[in-house]
Each structure stands twice: as C-alpha cells, then as structure tokens.
Amino acid sequence: MAEPAVTQDEKKEEEEQKVVDEGIEVGISRLTEARIEQVINQVLNTETGARLKTYVNTCIHCGLCSEACHYYMSHDKDPKWSPVGKVKQTLWEMIRKKGRVSPDFMRRAVEIAQTECNLCRRCLQFCPFGIDIAYLISMVRRICHKLGITPLYIQDTAHSHSVTMNQMWVKGDEWPDTLQWQEEEARGEFPTLRIPLEKEGADIMYSVIAPEPKFQAQLIYQAAAIMEVAGVDWTMPADMGWDNSDMAMFTGDNEIMGRVKRTHFELAARLRVKRIVMGECGHAFRSVYDTGNRWLGWSHPPIPIVHAIDFYWELLKDNRIPIKEKYPEPVTLHDPCNVIRGGGLMEKARYVAHALCETVVEMHPNREYNYCCCAGGGVINCGPPYKLKRVKSNRVKAEQLMDAKARGAKVIISPCHNCHSGLKDIKNYYDLHMDIKFFGDIIYQIMEKPE
Amino acid sequence: MHDLYQFVSGPLAWVAFILFVGGSLYRMIAMLVEVKKKEPFIFTYMSLKYSLRSIVHWMTPFATYNWRRKPVLTVVTFAFHICLFVSPIFLLAHVTLWDESWDISWWTLPDGVADVMTLIVIAGCVFFLLRRLTQPEVQFVTFPSDYFILAIVAAPFVTGFLAYHQWFGYPMVMVLHVLAGEVMLVAIPFTRLSHMIYSPFTRAYMGSEFGVIRKSKDF
Fold first, then answer.
1. CATH number of the domain within which B16 lies
2. Does this complex have an ipTM over 0.85?
3. B116-157 pLDDT tens trace
4. Total domains present in chain B
5. B54: nearest CA in chain A?
6. Counting beta carbons within 10 angstroms of the beta carbon of residue A29, is it exposed (0 to 12), middle (13 to 18) or buried (19 or more)?
C-alpha cells in the first residue's frame, strides 16, 4: 500500500494549505470570553490541586526539557515547539491572566495541546525537577474539552466510545460477526481453531482495539492462530467492552474514559478470567494500566493486564510457539512510549525480537529514551488535516530510521498500533522504503503450522 | 552607619530568618495539606526506594541521561549550587557571628577557599544570565522575574566578595551584604527560588510514578 513518492514542490504546496478544523472552528464560534474564564477557573481551581500549582511554581524556566521533544528537534530547535514553550503558550498564560483569554488564544491552545504534543512523557525524563509536563498539557486538553473545541476527528471517536463503547462505531452484531468470519477463515489453515466467545473461567480474555475488527481483521486471525498453536485457554467477549482503546483519555473527557474502562474491567470480571491479554497497542495499555484504572480509583488494574509483548515473551520463553526458522531479514525495533517508558517492557521486547529474528539492529537512542512516533497521544486521531504537520514534526524519527537502515535494517517492528500508522506515514513521506510489522505478523509468518 | 548595621543585622535578621523558616514550612505544609485534601492518591504511589533512586541520580553529576548530554551546564550547575550552600554556611565570618550571638560554632572553610567558592557562585550567575540571553529555548520562556531572582541570588555573593576584600565603602557594602542575604532568604519561600523546597517532593513523586507504575527510569 505504498503511497507514491512526493516531490519537493508538492510537499511545499501542501505545507501552504492552511488547516481548517471544523470541530475547533464551530466550537470557537460559540465561545464567549466569560465562558472561557469560567471554564478555565473551574478546571484550575476545582479539578486540579497542589500538583499543578507545585509544578508551575517549581519550574525554573531553564529549557532543559527542550531537546527531549521530537517536535522541537524536528523544527530546527524552534523554541515554540519545546515542551516548556508549549506550556508557556497555553497554561502559563491562562494562569497569569486568571482565565481571561480570548477565543483566538484558545484556538491556538487547542492546536498546541491536541496536535503538537503526543504526551509521550520523554520530557519528564529530561526535567531536573521531574515536572509532569504531559499532565500540564492534559489539563489544557481538559479545558478545551469542556469548552467544546476539541478537533473534529478525535471528538468523533470520543463520541463513538460514548455510544458504542468502542472507538470505531462498530455495531453490536458486527463484532461477533467479524470474529466468526476470522474463525472460519482460520479453520482453513488450522482445522481445530476456535475463537471462543464468552467462555467463562478462561485463563485469558483477549482484547483488541476497534480498528482491528474494522479494517485489520487479519490481526485477529493471527492472534487466534498464535493462541491455537500455543494451546492457550482464552476467550473473547461478545458484548460491549471488548475494545480496550480510549481516545476520550486523550481529549480530556475523563468521564467517558472512566465509563469505557469500567465496562472493560467489568466484562473481564463477568467472564471470571484470570488475566486480560491485549493486542499490540500502546495507548490502550496506558489507558487500562495507568490512567483509566486510576481515574476509577483502582490503584492498580483490578484484573492483571498483560501487553502482547509481555505475553509473547512468556510464550517464547516457555517454548510454546514452535518456530520453523527465524525471520531472515534484519529488523529494527521501535520502542513505543506507552509500553516502554510507560510500562517497562524494553528488555522483554528485545527478548522477543531476538527470539524471532536473525538480526536486530538497534535504533539510537533506544529503550525508554526512544523518540516518539508522533502519532500517539491522540495526534494521529485528529485526522488528515494534521497529517503533514505530524510527519514534518518527526524528522528526527526519520533520521533514526535512516540510520538503522544504513546499518542494514530492512523491517521496522512496531508493537503498537499508533506507532505503526505513524511510522508508515513517516517512511512514506521521507521515502524510507522499509517494511513495518507487528510482532504478531512475524510470529504468524515463522511459526510451525499444521501441514 | 553603625546604627543601620545594628538594625539590619539585628531585628531585620530576625524577621528574615522567621520569614524564611516559617514561610518554607508554610509552603511545604500547605502543599501537603492540599494534596491530602484533593489528590490523596499521590500518597498511595509514593515509594521511598524509588523516591531516593530518583533524587540520588539527579543529585549526582552525570548520573542522568540529561546531565550526560549537557556536560558544561552540569558542571556549572553543580558547582554553583554546592558553593551556594556551602560557602555561606561554613564561612568563618558567618560562624563567628553565630558564635558571638548564640555561642555555637562549627567547622569553617579557609578564607581563600570561601573566596573562590564565592567567585564560582558569581560566575554561575553570569553563566545562567548569558544562557537566558543567548539560548533561544531559554529566552523564549524567560520573564523579567527570572532576571530578578537571578539578581537576588547574585547580590549577597557580589556584596560579600566586595566586603571581604574591603575594596570600597566597607561599612555601606557590609550593610548591603546583610540586606541582600536577608532578601534572598525571604525570597526562597515566596518566589520560584522555592524550587529549593519543592524539588525533593516533585522528584520523589516522579521517581515513584516511574518506579512503581511505569517500571522505567526517570533519569
């Protein structure tokens, strides 16, 4: 599905097109200064506390977070893209003016918070004081959400979560239909394969993000194949809550986030499974493991959450997936922020990569210091209007990939959906000619299958 | 002049120390009370082990990724902060004052060493000033208050240096030195110099979040 290479002129032309986001514009047109002031002060005075105040008072304006940010690095170190620069242009100004900012100010604020920061938390590791800049930007998103000026595309997915409890408007019957369809397909290759629906007491509930049934059903096929070959006692739910994804978390719509996560955990509790294993997705992991569960008051997930990397690590370590031969092409491994910096799976990801592939070429920097893909944090979900900015804002990732390619890597492994899509756009824009795969793609390709 | 000196080093010094200690305690306690009231979950995640892991790494030169990336700044900021703390506390002239007033004393620095440390603090202030003026990423987030707090920190050391060498107007410089020191003490709890009070807490929380939940490094 490679897109044609774009010439320099075409690129420039695209750049000059001004982004008009209907979600933002319509929202802005309804705003009054009084309303803005009221909402900002409501969020700052009642929803936040000592944490936000202390972060703002402790920041010494040293700029040491700047070089953590791929936006800043990709825009020739223009300070308006630095983490603290973005806080200055949004939250500091709101606090300084006690909420008395204009609708035009809010237009720029929402653009910064939703499309110029991935909440990747790399700058948290760079700040000498440990100021949670991602939290500060999240609060700007929260204010924008309450003002109704969230970008159109991501607001639509939040609406979908609200109505269907999944991200992609997948209807009640489409979901089990898709699973049944994939089961049938897979039985051609694995005659005894089942996708067990609603099996109470299974060891594992397998959950995915809604784009999988919507347009990547082969990933469900592959997961079923791996479960079959490894002999896992698993189930998939038939009811709402099967989707572990969460764009409401990224629009600042905490109430919807809470509803979606509660449904997910209650579903697993109803099925009395021991653990929830999730597909290769980063933001969903953040939502069920870090953010959503805590918003609901569970200090840790009430039912253990196992990311696909962790699960494959278990299976490979116990020799439960027989491998024909290792994947021959040299690969490079992308470290998704939400499961590496946010979940500590860096060494397990490497174990899996080395167990599956002949040659693994490291990108630099790597592990928890890796650069973000620039798609996460809901940025790619703000849709096509922002695609060009997104790829241009991650030239450093392209350089990282180019360097890995120069040292022989032909394939990028990206164990996260958002990273997968984001890196695909980057490789196309910068003409990198590399393939991108999930771990699941590679496992499916090289494992022993019945004759 | 003598009366003025008596005033700044007597009653005003009391006021300064009370505001410094009282203000710092107030800021710290007010923060903890508000956390308890509005965000008590923060205490749930605090871990002594990971708090210390984080604090120790950031208090050790070159022990963190960002310190290693910025060797010059790292050397300057560590030298600056160490001298900023050590030289006033262990200066012979200061300890003599404690001794005279309260009959307590402790180990002191040789005067030559204290003199060099004072120069390091002043040089550090110049470095930070130049950084603010020349580095775009710092300039962009610089406010007049940033220059102001830098001046507050530099003043006691510049006047102290002049007073020690008695180059001109000793009595007046001495009064200014005492005043500058008092202004700095009072400024600590009430300006962004409060990072001295808050940073152990912000560091500890971030260290705990990264250690307990994210299982990765925050340094």
1. 1.20.950
2. yes
3. 999 999 999 999 999 999 999 999 999 999 999 999 999 999
4. 1
5. A130
6. exposed
